[in-house]
Specification:
Elements: E1 3-8, H1 25-35, E2 39-45, H2 49-59, E3 62-64, H3 67-73, E4 78-81, H4 88-97, E5 102-105, H5 113-125, E6 129-132, H6 140-150, E7 157-164, H7 171-186, E8 191-199, E9 205-206, E10 209-210, E11 214-221, E12 226-232, E13 239-244, E14 248-251, E15 254-259, E16 264-269, H8 274-292, H9 300-319, E17 323-324
Parallel strand pairs: 1-2, 1-4, 2-3, 4-5, 5-6, 7-12
Antiparallel strand pairs: 7-13, 8-11, 8-17, 9-10, 11-12, 13-14, 14-15, 15-16
Helix pairs in contact: 1-8, 4-5, 5-9, 7-9
Length: 341
């Protein structure tokens, strides 16, 4: 069977060479769908006509400016959502109710735990496979480190430390990947508490929603493992460190592992294609999940857990208190801050 794919949020043609796609992550997705044997990219949607015209010309698809019209007319098996985060939840719900077999949704999943639950619930009710694109779980370097961990080469993982520092270094835009990696490196235990400090002095809005200037987050997991995240434009070098009882791993341009009680040092060079290759793995896995009737590796439920931690961090900062999970608010806590009203 060939699965018909429609993509919402094509973005502009001229931004495709930025790492990560900039505002045109849809083009990285589209290029990846075209590599796969079992799918055919047949439709694209964007609210900007110039973006849509360029996408239709480059990919030979039918273009729509209304995603609901695309869902009604294009007979899609897979819907790929690359729009700004405030739109994700309603689009996932509409695609699931329109008869899609699978949905690939860009990160961050959405802007509230309530919407994350709604996305997962409607997909479950309609038998739809939902992916949230935390694709580092299937990227070569991260898979190798998880392999070291599973073989006991750094012992029991005690904590994971992450730092994000860039023009878009906020929890939702960037930090969502590292928070997802906390769970992944620790073996996906249940998160129990979140404590955070959040600075929103500049009242920044990015991708259609409020974000913070700086953040410090501590997540405690069942079993005692911890995750620490620091974020901000001036936070320092971007990176991830996994600390165990017998060694540690440092992510940077090169992944370095001090393994086996410090007796062995191994290094893994990054490759220019690692980032885009991870999308191919994730999308192929989504098709496999449909055919095998199983959860995809990047299942929506995992994305919902990450969303809960992010929202708990914002709630912790608002209350100036540690938050015990499960989180008891379905709202987006940043919207309650005076600077965003």
């Amino acid at each position: 069977m060939t699965y018909r794919v429609g993509l919402v949020g094509t973005g502009p043609r001229e931004r495709t060479k930025e790492r990560g796609g900039g505002f045109a992550i849809g083009r990285i997705h589209a290029d990846t769908w075209r590599k796969l044997d079992r799918v055919s990219l047949v439709a694209g949607c964007d609210i900007r006509q110039e973006n849509l015209d360029a996408f239709a010309e480059d990919y030979g698809v039918t273009g729509y400016t209304d995603y609901k019209a695309m869902l009604a007319e294009a007979k899609l098996d897979i819907v790929d959502i690359c729009t700004w985060p405030p739109l994700h939840a309603d689009m996932v719900v509409a695609a699931a109710e329109a008869g899609a077999k699978a949905i690939y949704c860009e990160k961050p999943m959405t802007l509230s735990l309530g919407d994350a639950r709604r996305m997962v619930d409607v997909c479950d009710a309609n038998g739809v496979k939902l992916v949230v694109s935390h694709q580092r779980r299937v990227e070569r370097r991260f898979l190798q480190v998880r392999n070291w961990i599973s073989k006991g080469r750094i012992g029991e993982v005690l904590e994971v430390q992450g730092r994000i520092s860039a023009a878009d270094a906020d929890i939702l835009s960037w930090g969502t990947h590292w928070i997802d990696m906390f769970g992944y490196m620790l073996g996906d235990p249940v998160a129990e508490t979140v404590f955070a400090a959040i600075d929103t002095t500049s009242a920044i809005r990015r991708y259609g929603h409020p974000v913070e200037d700086r953040a410090l987050i501590v997540v405690t997991y069942r079993g005692g493992g911890k995750g620490y995240l620091e974020g901000g434009v001036d936070a320092g070098p971007i990176g991830l460190r996994v600390i165990g009882t017998k060694g540690l791993v440092q992510f940077g341009d090169v992944v370095t592992g001090w393994l086996d009680g410090g007796t062995t040092i191994e290094r893994l060079e990054g490759r220019p294609t690692d980032f885009v290759d991870s999308f191919e793995v994730a999308m192929n896995d989504l098709v496999d999940a449909v055919e095998q009737n199983r959860d995809p590796i990047l299942a929506g439920r995992i994305g919902m857990r990450t969303t809960e931690i992010i929202m708990a961090a914002y709630e912790s900062a608002a209350r100036q208190a540690q938050i015990k999970l499960p989180l008891n608010t379905d709202a987006f806590p940043l919207l309650a801050r005076p600077e965003f009203k």
